[in-house]
Backbone:
């Protein structure tokens, strides 16, 4: 069964909550007032968000609509392999606990807004900072497009296509509204909306994991039904991992954890905190979202047990919601998923705009612009980023956007040596890091292209198969080139450019 139908009740409930968050988005400009003509106020919320706000902001930032649709869709298609998102969101928080307070402290001391600002100050290299900025913007664009894909699935599930209005109309309306209140309120808008979004998502997930299994005869029946489907399908599917999947599962989880907080939206949300202590407390408590993610992934098995039959796996959860709940609650669930698209899309566009304005426009177009001009350009760039993502969804095949997003994680890993290693040492030279970044980008992109833009490369030794996440392979190449090239760079250029940071910058972060 497709579970697709139009119901005015569902649409009415959806419209109510969408209107509510729209009002909150515009009201956010008055919340925790600041001079929004300053980029640190518009793009970082004045760095004043405490532990409570930051928890919701990071949760709203990292757990997106496409996560809520794509993770169970992967479980629906292949089974246990789709659960790689669980360990990855567990691995990431110890990394955050150790590194992000240091980044916050040094950026706060020097008035830096982006990771590329830090790289330029640390290494004295505009070229390396440009590489970091370009990587961030490139990887973010398809990520925003995927939020639109998630929103598109919600509109499809509500049956708006049966009204003859075209799939682009509701998307355009939703993202025009998003663009306007993001332009007006900056990071304060998604921070305030995140409270509503997270509360609605928890209600949706708890209701789903309690009510749907009861209707299906319990979790035992759900797993039995899923296992029968996978047994009939064959291949590397099942409720347990196959031996050939162990390495790819582990390396995907580890590589994704290394990459996550390098994304501009994650860095932006982190730097908006009011101190390193706030970041550490959130690194301790944010794994609560990982529990929710595991429950969300189980919806893939429930869709199989409920005999949900869809051509596009991304429709599995929306169809399951339609089949399991009355229209009014289905509308509530769809509104929660839609907010799961709007909140991260807003933060992503702000993070990309911060990078472009600070590290591309100011650095190469107009280095004498005022703070007000800088903020205005960032606002305009955030509009262009959203518009570009909208065009990508409307005029490119959806698979193309998804494939680019897979490349995005591989690309983001290539700034790990410059950013994360730079928080602890400056032994690596800027030119060597730039060469390593280029080698990693080329190798990662080439391997992904060779695999049909799949994220795993398989090594075969006799009868054994070892799938390794391409991002990690490229990162190893990156490190090898950077380490080998550093002594060469030191000899060719005896005096490196000055480091604008001091040891006390990082010591304070560790003790803060």
Residues:
């Amino acid at each position: 069964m497709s579970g697709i139908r139009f119901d005015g009740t569902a649409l009415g409930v959806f419209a109510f909550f969408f209107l509510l968050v729209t009002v909150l988005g515009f009201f956010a400009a008055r919340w925790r007032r600041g001079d929004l003509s300053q980029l640190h106020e518009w793009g970082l919320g004045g760095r004043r968000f405490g532990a409570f706000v930051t928890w919701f902001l990071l949760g709203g930032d990292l757990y997106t609509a496409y996560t809520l649709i794509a993770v169970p869709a992967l479980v629906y298609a292949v089974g246990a392999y789709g659960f790689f998102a669980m360990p990855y969101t567990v691995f990431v928080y110890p990394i955050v606990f150790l590194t992000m307070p240091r980044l916050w402290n040094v950026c706060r001391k020097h008035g830096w807004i982006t990771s590329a600002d830090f790289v330029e100050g640390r290494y004295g290299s505009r070229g390396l900072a440009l590489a970091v900025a370009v990587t961030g913007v490139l990887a973010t664009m398809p990520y925003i497009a995927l939020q639109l894909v998630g929103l598109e699935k919600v509109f499809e599930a509500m049956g708006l296509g049966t009204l003859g209005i075209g799939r682009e109309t509701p998307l355009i309306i939703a993202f025009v509204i998003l663009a306007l209140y993001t332009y007006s309120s900056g990071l304060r808008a998604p921070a305030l909306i995140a409270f509503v979004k997270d509360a609605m998502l928890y209600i949706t997930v708890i209701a789903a994991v309690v009510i749907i299994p009861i209707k299906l005869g319990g979790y035992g029946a759900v797993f039995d039904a899923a296992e029968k489907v996978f047994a009939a399908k064959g291949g590397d599917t099942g409720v347990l991992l196959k031996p050939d999947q162990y390495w790819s599962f582990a390396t995907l989880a580890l590589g994704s954890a290394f990459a996550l907080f390098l994304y501009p939206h994650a860095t932006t949300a982190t730097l908006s905190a009011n101190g390193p202590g706030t970041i550490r407390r959130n690194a301790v408590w944010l794994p609560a979202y990982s529990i929710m993610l595991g429950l969300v992934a189980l919806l893939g098995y429930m869709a199989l047990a409920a005999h949900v039959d869809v051509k596009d796996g991304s429709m599995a959860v929306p169809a399951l919601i339609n089949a399991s709940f009355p229209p009014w609650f289905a509308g509530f669930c769809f509104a929660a998923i839609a907010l799961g698209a709007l909140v991260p899309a807003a933060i992503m566009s702000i993070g990309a705009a911060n990078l472009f304005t600070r590290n591309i426009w100011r650095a190469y177009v107009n280095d004498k612009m005022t703070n007000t001009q800088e903020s205005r350009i960032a606002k305009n760039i955030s509009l262009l980023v959203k518009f570009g993502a909208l065009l990508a969804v409307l005029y490119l095949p959806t698979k193309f956007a998804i494939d680019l997003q897979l490349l995005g994680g591989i690309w983001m890993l290539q700034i790990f040596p410059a950013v994360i290693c730079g928080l602890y040492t400056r032994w690596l030279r800027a030119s060597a890091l730039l060469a390593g970044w280029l080698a990693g980008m080329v190798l990662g992109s080439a391997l992904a292209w060779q695999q049909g833009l799949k994220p795993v490369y398989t090594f075969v030794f006799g009868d054994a198969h070892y799938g390794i996440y391409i991002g990690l392979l490229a990162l190893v190449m990156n490190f090898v080139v950077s380490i080998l090239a550093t002594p060469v760079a030191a000899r060719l250029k005896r005096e490196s450019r000055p480091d604008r940071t001091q040891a006390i910058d990082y010591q304070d972060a560790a003790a803060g």
Notes: The chain has one domain: 8-511. The mean pLDDT is 88. The chain is about 75% helix and 0% strand. The radius of gyration is 23 Å.
